[in-house]
Design brief:
With 225 residues, the protein is of the alpha+beta class. The chain is built from 5 helices and 11 strands; from the N terminus they run E-H-E-E-E-E-H-E-E-E-H-H-E-E-E-H. The longest helix is centred in the middle third of the chain and has 15 residues, at 118-132. It binds flavin-adenine dinucleotide (FAD). Flavin-adenine dinucleotide (FAD) is lined by residues 9-14, 85, 87, 101, 103, 105-107, 162-164.
Length: 225
Amino acid sequence: MVELGTTERTRVRRAPERAAIDPAILYAVLDEGLICHVGFVDAGSPVVIPTSYGRDGEVLYLHGSTGSRMMRHLATGAPVCVTVTLLDGLVLARSVMHHSMNYRSAVVFGAARPVTAADERWHAFEAIVDHLVPGRWADARHPNRKEAAATAIVAVDLSEASVKLRTGPPIDDEIDLDAGTWAGVLPFATTIGPPTADDHTPAGVDAPAYAVDYRRPVHSNGNRG
Ligand SMILES: Cc1cc2nc3c(=O)[nH]c(=O)nc-3n(C[C@H](O)[C@H](O)[C@H](O)COP(=O)(O)OP(=O)(O)OC[C@H]3O[C@@H](n4cnc5c(N)ncnc54)[C@H](O)[C@@H]3O)c2cc1C
């Protein structure tokens, strides 16, 4: 099982009391998030690309066109850093200096592993689709041979990672507490609207329950500080 923040490059330095040590919190952040940012160095230049992902146990799967720069680079087994950030609130302090954000964020380091075995590729497709919309893999047409061949998949093991969380109200300086200024938290949450059918959906075909009742998995915050 992954140990969080135990390597030199995953040790949270500033505000280390906000670092999580429970791998369950890493999994919760990854499972709630929809977008990861993939950082790598290509031709000597750092780049960070947003993309979707899926998780199966201690493996993250990324996929994309075999023509994409990111996938071509990662398929070489290149070192990669993947981050996922969840915004829980804006923290409005009495002093601008102490404004902050409540968040849960994960940073994963590793080497991308090209996924080439047919079984694992299929499994990764399912993990990515069902990460975005649980239940959709069973409903939608699966990739055909040509589509699958045009899709590269890489895996990143969750073996070296860190998680950091901020929760709670602003932390103002004592001298500002009697300023009379409003201070507190603006909580943030993702709002999902009702499903809207496209023009090719026949009348009488209702949106599936997993779309009508769509929610991201919500896990409680928690840190060790
Ligand atoms: C939404 C959001 C807003 C933020 N706003 C600011 C800001 O305005 N200014 C600012 O200085 N910091 C901000 N942070 C915190 C920032 O992510 C770093 O934690 C901070 O820069 C401290 O870095 P450091 O020099 O101590 O550690 P670094 O040396 O940069 O990091 C060491 C290791 O700690 C781990 N780590 C560091 N930060 C995080 C994290 N957030 N999540 C998971 N692992 C982490 C990584 O494994 C990293 O390799 C914000 C974070 C989030 C999620």
